[in-house]
Backbone:
């Protein structure tokens, strides 16, 4: 199975990196693709440019090969719809299972995503608990009832269509908090890799 971890990464932090690594390891994924969105469709535009967000992710991923930077959303003009990304991955990988990784905050808003019902035709959903995330309600909750599985082994038996809630180390780190710290002149050390912190400070991305 190939993991698909999308985000704005504005900036990337240990909440992304540690959870991505744990999901990759627990499910023995062939690779975990980390995909920065050019234009996230369902939120305010990111503060840092697509290039800066990609550079920060590349710095964060240096020296390891389990998490892989995938730039396809940055290269595609217009809003970065995850359904288009999954269509292109599905075309490349045939029947290989794909696992779309989402924090439970993101999963709770899934029914606002473009062509959201197609997502589970293209990939499994791997939903990570996130501090303060809350339980999903409405359509995502119903989807979880219909498609949720407790046995991770089932994910490898078909290319898409199941939802697995995965336990990860709980890290209450958010990019919003890091941007606010930078704007207020406070320290963000130990929340994200030093190389990323040095880059965002040298380029005055969030001051
Ligand atoms: P922002 O604060 O700007 O909204 P963010 O920290 O939530 O950013 P995103 O890039 O928007 O980061 O998140 C990408 C994905 O990573 C989403 O699925 C989100 O739920 C998940 N995620 C981010 N931080 C964590 C965390 N600390 N624990 C678990 N999942 C996380």
Residues:
């Amino acid at each position: 199975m190939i993991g698909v971890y999308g985000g704005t990464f504005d900036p990337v932090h240990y909440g992304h990196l540690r959870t991505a690594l744990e999901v990759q390891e627990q499910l023995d994924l062939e690779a975990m693709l980390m995909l920065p969105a050019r234009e996230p469709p369902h939120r305010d535009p990111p503060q840092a440019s697509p290039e800066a967000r990609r550079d920060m992710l590349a710095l964060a991923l240096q020296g390891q090969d389990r998490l892989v930077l995938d730039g396809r959303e940055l290269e595609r003009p217009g809003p970065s719809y995850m359904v288009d990304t999954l269509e292109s991955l599905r075309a490349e990988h045939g029947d290989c299972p794909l696992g779309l990784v989402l924090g439970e905050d993101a999963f709770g808003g899934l029914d606002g995503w473009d062509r959201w019902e197609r997502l589970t035709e293209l990939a499994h959903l791997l939903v990570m608990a996130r501090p303060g995330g809350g339980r999903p309600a409405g359509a995502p909750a119903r989807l979880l009832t219909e498609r949720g599985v407790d046995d991770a082994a089932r994910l490898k038996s078909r290319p898409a269509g199941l939802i697995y809630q995965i336990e990860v180390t709980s890290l209450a780190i958010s990019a919003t908090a890091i941007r606010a710290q930078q704007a207020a002149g406070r320290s963000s050390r130990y929340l994200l890799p030093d190389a990323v912190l040095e880059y965002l400070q040298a380029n005055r991305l969030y001051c």
About this structure: The chain has one domain: 2-171.
